[in-house]
Amino acid sequence: MPAPAELLKWIDASSDAFIARLAEAVAIPSISGDPAFRPHVLRMSDWVNAQLQAVGVTTKQVDLGTHVMDGQTLPLPKAVLGRIGNDPAKKTVLLYGHFDVQPASKSDGWETEPFVLTEEKDGRLVGRGSSDDKGPVLGWIGVLQWHHETQTPLPVNLVICFEGMEENGSEGLDELVEREKDGWFKGVDCMCISDNYWLNTRTPVLTYGLRGLVYFKINVSGPGRDLHSGVFGRTVHEPMTDLIALMGRLVTPAGDILVPGVDDMVGAADAEELALYEKLDYAVADVEAAAGGKIALSEDKVEVLMGRMRLPSLSLHGIEGAFAGPGAKTVIPAKVGGKFSIRLVPPQTPASVTPLVTSYLESEFAKLGSKNKLEVELLHDGKPWVADWRHWNYTAAMEATKQIYNKTPDLTREGGSIPVTLTFAETLGVNVLLLPMGRGDDGAHSTNEKLDKSNFIQGTKLLGSYLYEVGASKGGK
Amino acid sequence: MPAPAELLKWIDASSDAFIARLAEAVAIPSISGDPAFRPHVLRMSDWVNAQLQAVGVTTKQVDLGTHVMDGQTLPLPKAVLGRIGNDPAKKTVLLYGHFDVQPASKSDGWETEPFVLTEEKDGRLVGRGSSDDKGPVLGWIGVLQWHHETQTPLPVNLVICFEGMEENGSEGLDELVEREKDGWFKGVDCMCISDNYWLNTRTPVLTYGLRGLVYFKINVSGPGRDLHSGVFGRTVHEPMTDLIALMGRLVTPAGDILVPGVDDMVGAADAEELALYEKLDYAVADVEAAAGGKIALSEDKVEVLMGRMRLPSLSLHGIEGAFAGPGAKTVIPAKVGGKFSIRLVPPQTPASVTPLVTSYLESEFAKLGSKNKLEVELLHDGKPWVADWRHWNYTAAMEATKQIYNKTPDLTREGGSIPVTLTFAETLGVNVLLLPMGRGDDGAHSTNEKLDKSNFIQGTKLLGSYLYEVGASKGGK
């Protein structure tokens, strides 16, 4: 069952009002990662709560307590839970979104004021949070507004969870989901998250997988303090020499992971899976355009796509404690911490990969014959997630996409991580769909973040249509 | 000819006055590396000039022009040139010292106010510049004061060059030396610099060699901007992977330099030279105490000493452009610059070593098969210096040391660089002696810099005695 034509027409007719509402949301600089902006994140929670209430949603703002950031104890922004509809004959869909944003300031290189939504002639709506994730949140609210104003019943029951700490580790959310599993989230049949991006600028996607992550710090120490390389060069074991030797044994320039067993965990793709990648609307030129350089690891599109979607990757990020400034300081740093991370794919988990990494580093360090000390620290981890894209939840989204975009969406897996996806999938035991609104070049965490007006308007229609397709689906329930 | 007993007695009797004068000098925070402190460096030049005039020295303050630091054009502190005595029958000794200091602030971990000279119970005179190099400069002035007050003629003619930019590359000094080669510095027979340290805390040293330096930056670039490791991991050539691979091929954990040809340039030590090192008052425990960790490359004292004094060394300092902060940022840095330096010893020169390094890095990079770009940059260089320690200038200093300390000094080479030494040696064509006043644990560039009272007083006697020994020497002239 497609969405009512009146809804789609109304969305088209409401574009100015939608953009004005998005401007209002963008104007609240709800940066969750900067203590100075915390009051704005709290205010943003109230704003979102009021918007939901105005379109007929029953809400509850949940106090998530406090946390410590940069030495300050700060109140966490309240999560906004919502419910509308309670018809046992209808499916219940859980929607997730977030109303906090990444830091942004003109001095970072923004061409416009980041917290003033600016509509460019080419239709780009430029502003921090436009695409990540205020646009999609307001897309859902737009759909609800029409139903509320026209007193049209929704095709499904909705449960809503909008949070304000997504850009900072979703602090407090895991506990909330666990706590409300049989409370606010009871009876949920499937879930939809609109918080990622198309693979390119042309073709809508449904995303069914995300990589996990283990993030390590290799600490090497020895001297009691930083030493002068003139005085101590070639007299002592230098921590940097040992660390660089270890970091150089983790990954090849071609991207192969040298930690024994890690790459081996992932089986090869069969013909059916290879065909999936072959079909995607994607060229090596797309990755090179996005990277800003002709540096793809392969000329073969399927290989490049699999490197991003179905293989683990190891990146070296940098070194804490070494000399990082400009100029020529002749220091032997006393204690250095090399940072690297591995993106994980099923069946890898942090629990299965971490011991391989640790024991490999320890055995390689032993080979160096150094008198320095090694400590391997796991800073951060998250499991990978892959959903069943043959589920009716995906079928509904696929139908909706065909109606709105007149295209079959690409089925993709993402290279990055959205840990909350796994939390919901595992805790509630439901199929989760990622249904993005924005394009691959939106620059979510970058300067000049934008959401194209057509993606905002068509994307809002898509979210509405998706609910109708779920409502009509014969699967489940 | 030993120094007059009256001079030595007077120096002992003047210790309170000497310490008071050192306190006055330390109280002027003449930090040359911080634009905000430049007025104090200028003031320090005037203070030193006045001190020299007060003890009968004819002086000239030389304007060295301006330079740019942190985007500001700043006046360079005037060098203070001095002359006293013009007897053609006497030798002419050139003295060098500097009156600027390293940065210091309580918040760096100083136990006392860095610019308030604090005399501790154990005799340590704690304060920034106490040992490096205001103490030695005031040592010379103390010697001159007695001759001035007692109207005793000096045993030699003196030419003095005190500068205020030593801690910041001795800006303007090379040009000054070149300009005054046949002017103010005409007729100089030998030179003495008191601006380094004993090897340990027990035995005085004469230093006859310094290592040179080539400081490189390996730039690897590829992406147009920093990338997200989730999105781009295993799809593109990552500059950090390439850079770490290159940095890992420069030096072994045991200190051997892997750049072909570099270690080979230096011949092995013969039995006579080995005996020199064997004789030095130095234990592996000394280097480990100074380094603050049991991390010496060898248990053999001669090997450790040769590593510091007669072998080149390669240290990895850090990476510019990579992630260096705390936390777990999942970035693929777009452009990274790996910093390392090689300390050089004769017959190595920057001109002979640099092409070896560059072509090695280029050929190793080619082996990586990366699509990123490599650029090898030489940031900074200086030739090594070794003087003839059989010269009468050294013999005089050796005699003076025996008289004052009742010990034969250790003959050492330093691992570090004092580029101005080579400038004077090459431009004026004279034998240069490094005759340190302070101990190996003075912490010249560190927190809680100190000069032991006994080193200040005995060291002042040593400088005076040295002049008498030079005056009586039958060598040269």
From TrEMBL, chains A, B:
Pfam families: M20_dimer, Peptidase_M20. Residues 208-366 form the Peptidase M20 dimerisation domain. GO terms for biological process: proteolysis. Keywords: Hydrolase, Metal-binding, Protease. GO terms for molecular function: metal ion binding; peptidase activity. InterPro entries: ArgE/DapE_CS (IPR001261), Cyt/Met_Dipeptidase (IPR051458), Peptidase_M20 (IPR002933), Peptidase_M20_dimer (IPR011650). The keyword Protease applies. The keyword Transmembrane helix does not apply. Belongs to the peptidase M20A family. This is Peptidase M20 dimerisation domain-containing protein. The lineage of its organism: Eukaryota, Fungi, Dikarya, Basidiomycota, Agaricomycotina.
